[in-house]
Amino acid sequence: MIEKVLIANRGEIAIRILRACREMGIGTVAIHSTADADAMHVRLADESVCVGPPQVLDSYLNKNAILTAATISGADAIHPGYGFLSENADFAQMVEEHGLVFIGPSFEHINMMGDKITAKAAVKAAGIPVVPGSEGAVTDPAEARAIAKEIGLPVIIKAAAGGGGRGMRVAKTMDDLEDALRIASTEAATMFGSGAVYVEKYLETPRHIEIQLLADNHGNVVHLGERDCSLQRRNQKILEESPSPALNDSQRTEIGEVTRAAIQKLGYRSVGTVEYLYEDGKFFFIEMNTRLQVEHPVTEMVCGLDLVREMIRVASDLPLSIKQSDVRFSGHAIECRINAEHPETFMPSPGKVGLYHSPGGLGVRVDSALYSGYTVPPYYDSMIAKLIVHGTNRNECLMRLRRALDEYVIDGLDTSIPLHQRLMEEPDFVNGNYDIHWLERMLDL
Fold first, then answer.
1. Radius of gyration of the chain (CA)
2. Among 18, 124, 236, 389, which one is most buried in terms of CB atoms within 10 A?
3. What is the spatial distance between Cα 125 and Cα 112, in angstroms, rounded to a whole number?
């Protein structure tokens, strides 16, 4: 069994991993930049090591510094959390080559799913439905036009090595296609180091549905139902819920089983999430995330299962603690991502936290690293907290979420709490009638 884990991350996810380790009797090592010397994850860990200055390339993305920290602290495993190096196949391989355990999938699977073209081909062969489009990378505008003519406009150009909504352009007419191809490729090269892009049919009003998976080294794979992540702005998730108000029981069972069987064929291990676009009763593969998701607490709330604990068990070569027949879904859960940004302009709002009070009560969970007097640095992602609420049904969950948002006080910063309060009053959201473009339409109005 793993005895000491170095947590190669910061903020709320570092604390989330730390808590799971503490409950399992596992020692913890926090890493931090000089800007995070007073961060809560540093205060709570058994040990801490500074890995560099504030800039992420010199600290949280500094592979050599992180491996050195693991060596000098005597850690025998590294958990990458999400973001940063969590889906970096080279880092996962380096961890293993240094005789340490990488708490996550194999570097081969990270590499496979990190390239969207390779991933699409792999899951298609395993039985997962994919969006109609090009079979590989597209560089020639004439080829792009031929594909668009075959599958129909509009189409979307996507970065093969992309993610997080970057390196994507929609072409609604043939005249738009060449510019969209050029811009997406240039942005992809800048953001991801590869200008490879591919063409897919652009769905007009889809839902974003993702299936949470757990797999071990002994051939066991379970799915833990779906999350609806359709509430997005600029392809960035704002709120997630489970179960999806758009699916019925037979649909969620079918897509869960299709996904579970495909991932079992691929020999995958650890946690993973297969993301789909859902429209007119059909599911289409988008990508697979080979890491812990930001929104994993939504699944934990409806399943009563600790996903980080399962990750650590799998990394220790233990079997999953449950089988598919053991999985039970209970009630409804919603997660609000709380960002340090203006709720209307979305401008980042780093700074010092004054009065801080988090909501509580039955069915309310807050994952955050904030405390009164803490200074939110300007160098990292603006998400500062996740508010997750559970109820026996969606209506109770919404009522509880309204109450929890009203209780949440973060003084000294602009936050996205008012945006979430506004969403709670929108009839379309309350009724579950929204798609991935709904929030942007609402904000434009």
1. 21
2. 389
3. 13
Class of domain 4-85: alpha beta
Cα 176 from Cα 82, distance rounded (Å):
35
| pLDDT tens-place string over residues 264-294 | 999 999 999 999 999 999 999 999 999 999 9
Fold of 132-201: Dna Ligase; domain 1 (3.30.1490)
Active-site amino acid positions: 291
Give yes or no for a contact between 35 and 7, defined as CB atoms under 8 angstroms apart.
no
Compute the CA torsion angle 343, 346, 350, 354 (nearest 10 deg). 0
Lookup: tokens for 58: 């010199």
The boundaries of every CATH 3.30.1490.20 domain in the chain are: 132-201
In the chain, which segments carry CATH 3.40.50.20? 4-85
pLDDT per position as a tens digit, 331-350: 999 999 999 999 999 999 99
φ/ψ of residue 290, rounded to 5: -95, 55
Closest listed residue to residue 47, CA positions, set 71, 81, 82, 24: 71
Cα–Cα nearest to 443, from 424, 427, 421, 419: 419
Q: How far apart are the first and last CA of the chain?
A: 54
Strands (E) located in 153-303: 155-159, 168-171, 197-201, 207-215, 221-233, 236-242, 270-279, 282-289
CATH architecture assignment, domain 207-444: 2-Layer Sandwich (3.30)
